[in-house]
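Model: Ready when you are.
Researcher: Fold this.
Model:
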Amino acid sequence: MKKSFLILILVFVAYSCGDSSDKSKTSGADVSSHSNSNPDAETSADDIDTPSEKTTKSELNDLFNMGKGILETSEKKGDAGFQLDTQMLIDMLVESGVSRESLEKLINNPDSLKVLAQQAMKERVEAQQNEPMLKGRISKEQLTSKKTPTGVSLEEAILIVQAESGPEATMAKLKTIDSLAGTNMMSQLDLTEAGYVIRDVERKHEIPATVEENQKIMAYRNKALNMHSEKESRELLEEFEATEKAIASGKLKASPRFERDIENWKKTVNIFHKDIVRKSEAAKRKFKQLNPNLFYGDEVGISYVGNQKKTVYLPLGPLSFADEVITVNHPKLLTQEVNNVLGEPDVIETYDDATGIYSLGLGGTLTVRFTDNALVDVNGPDLYLFEIGQLEPTDLEISKDGKTWIKIGKIDGGVAEVDIAPFVKPNELFYYVRFKDLKEKSALPGADVDAIAAIGSAMRLNLDSQVLFDSGKSELRPQGITALKALVNSITVLKKGKVIVEGHTDDIGSDETNNALSLARAKSVSKALRNLIPSTQFKWQEKGYGESQPLVENDSDINRAKNRRVEILILPN
């Protein structure tokens, strides 16, 4: 499920988050490198494309150097993949000095980068075996030893000087440290290397992060590595900024480690926020080009990060997602987490686990219903399945009433978008979607579903006739007017659209009487709403369905009450 090339993204981010003085070296970055390589991949150097003649040895060495330490770190802790597309990865790495031509060829095959990381590790090991002690390098014993002319260790001298001066390494500071310790070791180092030594000593003696701070950082990390929308990344940045202000003002006491982690994760999230914003705008433009009339406003529509880190624009935002599980069948009866498929995407992936999803299991089935919206055909894709990892072969059906089903066919091969146009009539509304995992050989045991969204979506509002009308009447009660006023904001937030007001009854009475009553009630509600919403951007239509479209069986007083209703649908013009 992880993309091995994302390893190098986080390495680059780590370097970009470090001090400006750190940029000349590949060690000492503040943010740890994280590995997402697939341990099951078996790729050798012979399996990847040979770089073009323009790919120089120095350019490959640059890539090798960026991968140093990746495999070692991945064995200790692993991190979930982040949301970057190939183009942004290329842009970021080009800034490090590697040619775009080389990167485009290598990044198109993620396994290539794993091979490069392995090669970098091999070179590192060989270099360590043959590399002589560098001039000016200070060992742990040299730092801590008090066998100096003054009896003060270099470590103690560093702490004394740092307590009286700023954090940056300067030649005057290095000479002062040597003077206190009676040595000349620090002043022989270049400022960058001396900065590493000073920083390491400081961090060794600083107040450690508390358990609560470590828990917060882990929570921030999980959020940062699992952003699902521009809204989420913006809110996380605001949370980081608020935390920094609280620390700066003294309202929040924090350890140095906590402060550094907040600063570094903020930088990381800011990079990906910009990427999500860019991709969201592109997705919105594409959708508006295909559907110029299906745009309810910037306040409503939201773009979400979907399969393979692609972005999908949903004109109804959070309202677009499935609301209710109707039936579920799992081959091993593992249905406790089935409600994870409802609502917005919220999966949290870690190195060896994922929460917020539901696996259908091999041959498992799942039926969901949209209650505050409806699936309708638009230009382009109409339904989107948010699934983690490899998209499993899944059979898809849709229905208006949960009884009569239309077979859409198999979805797989990494395509999470579904176009229902070949199977439906214009303006038909569907409320039920059924999935069945196909028992086909694949890497995963059943589709892992995070969320289900109607791209082509109509808002749906349901009103209880008992609140609106007296029994058998079509004149609105005072309570009914109050109920309609409460709906105005929900409707007007869409700015424009076609408003269809539908009246429905139970099965008591004749068809003729029920049809007439349901239409009269629809007209009463429509008239009241027009007075409350004078905007000319809405077109209005009333329909009376009588008892023909019950929500549930008319087999009890409770169910009959559910079927006596008025539904309001807001569709694109």
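Researcher: Now this one.
Model:
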Amino acid sequence: MSIKVKHRNFKPLMAPLFLLATGFMFGQQTVNDTVKQGTTKDIEEVVVIGYGKVKKSDLTGSVASVSAKELAATPAMNALQALQGRAAGLNIVTAGGAPGAGANVTIRGGASITQGTSPLYIVDGFQLDNALNVINPNDIESIDILKGPSAIAIYGARGSNGIIVIKTKTGKKGRTVINYNSFIMFDMLSKRLDMMSNAEQFVKYQYEFAQLQNKMTAWSAVYDNGLGLDTPGFYTGAFNRISNRYANAGALDWQEKMLGGTGMTQNQNVNFSTGNEKTQAFVSYNYNKQDGLLQNFSETRNSLRANITSELKKGLRVDFSSMFTSNSTNGGGAYSGMKKILLQPITGGTLFNDDQLFNTQTFPDYTSLDSGYDTENPFVETRASTQNSRSRAFVANLGLEVDFLKNFTFRTAGQYQFSNSKSQSFSDENSRAYLTDPVNTGINGSIGNSESYRYQITNTVTYNTTLGENHKINALAGQEVVYSASESNSMRLIKFPVPNFGLDDINNATVQDKSAGRSTPNSLLSYFGRVNYNYDDRYLLTGTLRYDGSSKFGPNKKWGLFPSFAAAWRVSQEGFWQDSKIANVINDLKFRYEYGVTGNNDIGSNLFVTNVVQTDYPINNTPGNPAYVPGTNLGNANLIWEESQNSNLGMDLAMFNNRIRLTAELYDNKVSGMLLNSLLPVSSGYSRQFQNIGSMTNQGMEFTLNTINFKTEGFRWSTDFNISSNKSKVLSLEQNQNTRTFGVGGNRTGTVTYYATVGEQLGDMYGYVYQGVYTTDDFLQNTDGTFGALKPGVVKPATGTAKPGDMKFAADNEKGDQFTRKMQKIGNGTPDFFGGMQNNFSYKGFDLGIFMKFSVGGDIYNATKHSLSPYALNQNIPAEFGSNYYRLIDPNTGQITNNIARLKELNPNEGDRTWSLSQVNSQNITYPSSYYVEDGSYLRIAQVTLGYSLEKEFIKHVGLTNARIYCTLNNLATITGYSGFDPEVSAASGVAVTPGYDGSAYPRSRSYVLGINLTF
């Protein structure tokens, strides 16, 4: 269910705040009455940080944590889905609802304009790219999001975009425990766009479009049995013929046909844990199969993980773990063709019956009538053009730990990763590719292969001691090397003789192009250290230093030094506090401050040298002589690390015996010396060069609130709430440059330009300001009753003269009387704030969890709506346009009317109408305009789970120690003013500068889940 709120400034945050306030009001008396019953979840939990762990009470840096229990409460295909909205400062936006679709993950907005903003993932001490999408959620023990400079500086160059540290489950001492978790999920389309669905209305719309575009012969061929235009009464009787023929005609519902079914997902997970005093082992297996709503879209995953830890003898420990994953995705993991479903004609008129319209590739017929028609039959196309990608990855970790001397521990650990992937596509004779060029392209396909490997070796020495009674010191020194390389090849094949054997018939196809390459190996050598000092659990100090050397920089610029410092004061441990009455209310109060520097080397290799490329040098006018010339990019031997200077001020508060816990953060991150691919003067002979130039800031605040609202012997209600706000601002760019532009989309797919402007926030959308349409009141009236020139003071169009029904854009010249196509700001895609709230209820064996997520502010450029504008004959359009466009055709004559009185009669409430179907508007609709910009605020009831755990006395007779059954509703309802499929849209290019772009993505589903958790 999507509940649309039309008010543009709707603030859905009011709903969770109201519920939260209600929780306090309802539970406050109980908190006061039961405060002496004992501590609940205390603050001595352990947080995993870089190369170690620390008690949360001793933490000096900004870290958000999510436990295995919280993840287990969310039946999800991957940890990305389970983590959405559950940690302050972490923003995860999936690219759509297709099986295998990716996601855009940022921590505190990211730290770059043109480079990637993805965080670093550390799994059990080692880097693992895209870990949240790779690791089985059931294998995760905890997730810690390192956000502050003290926490991330220990990773130096790799920590500039934040770090997500994942600790996986290990074996436990004691008897063997077997866990089996399984769920089955049924997906259904959560929302449909309201498209024109009445055949008579559709054909009349097509008539007006054809008449104004001079395509009446094509219209007649489809909808009027090819009746000649010179037939007496062709025009005057056209609307009567349409009514007689189509008044009771059926119409195809393409959304129902293509997406109206049910997709099914099944997930099976089993793990074993066993161990004695010396050795512990853990093994897990996960199988996941998701079938999408769209045919030929599915994903299958298998993962196997095993680890073993053993104390060989006192003071000597060894650990080994390995993981194998296999993933197969049909459909490519994304689907950008939603507009092709929505634009399909709902009736074939007299040319096609409904069965032919749905089951036949009608693309050639419609294209022959109107070259602008570009929407192939999606039902046929998804069968005719198939995509598949397969990937496999193997990871092995080995560590050895030795205690030596007194209070010293040495650890050496290594990891090896290997992955390979294969992608392939095939298009038969019913595909658009074949039909567009059957001779030169024909039946075609492609194959691509890639493989990569990485190894990492880390050596650390830690020292722990307590001096006297109150001085605790933890020191760490380490050295690390990371090396990675990859290679790939691909081949494009055309002119397969027959489709029967697919890519197996490769020997009989023609190779159109091929490529092969091997990346320049990347290596990072690092030295690092950290000291934690704790005085009497009151004063906490942390200092870190990392020295990184990267192969991506020149011989004299490889090294970067990244320090950080943090201090914390636990006021609640002071004697004056503990002796006061306030200690009975506020159990813990800690203030934190941290400052640090991190680096970024997220660029290609060998940019410090000028590469050469092969070309052809004719000798005596004879080509075919290979030669080498410098490339277009000039190398920069002085290229150095991009640097981020970060500060964070935090407060941790616990009240009423830890029944209420609050964490508040304020941060200010400044990036300088940004790695930008800058334009060079033509006189240099080169086009671009990577330079350290430009700077930006990220500033924001975060709040996390955990409460136990109600607690009795049989009933418990707790709430976890987080909210974040981040603003990115450009401070400087290239020399003499005030703006960089980033174009997204195209004329037919919906285009918008984002500006990164000095002094302004990132995410600014630029286009033209739409002000409705020209009405008859904007024109002078001629003596014959027709409209004439524009009245004085009315905005003039960019070129030519205006007519009633033409799109009107705001004046942008100095006089303020004419539109000149000067770009203006039309929105910003960055939300004002976002977050989530989880309410957990338990009563005896029952448990109920309700999770809501929200985003307030932030505009969306509705490129889906843009792409559904009236571009071509025979295509469908949104119902709101089809019932409200400005009419220029008089139904009585079947011809254009210029009479002011008649236009007023045909268009009641002229000023509220959308534009006409005139030729000039065919150009106007290709412009990016504020018409397509909408408020992206939403409040989503993302998940509701009801479970029941069977009585232990009952299940122990069948060998079970725990048995729980549950049902979950995902994506239950969304309150929003956004008219598209979903207000949760991903940045178009995966970077911070282009948020809020809705590019016709595969819609999210509403799902119903049935699951079971068993422990033997």
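Researcher: Key takeaway?
Model: The CA atoms of residues 829 and 864 lie 16 Å apart.
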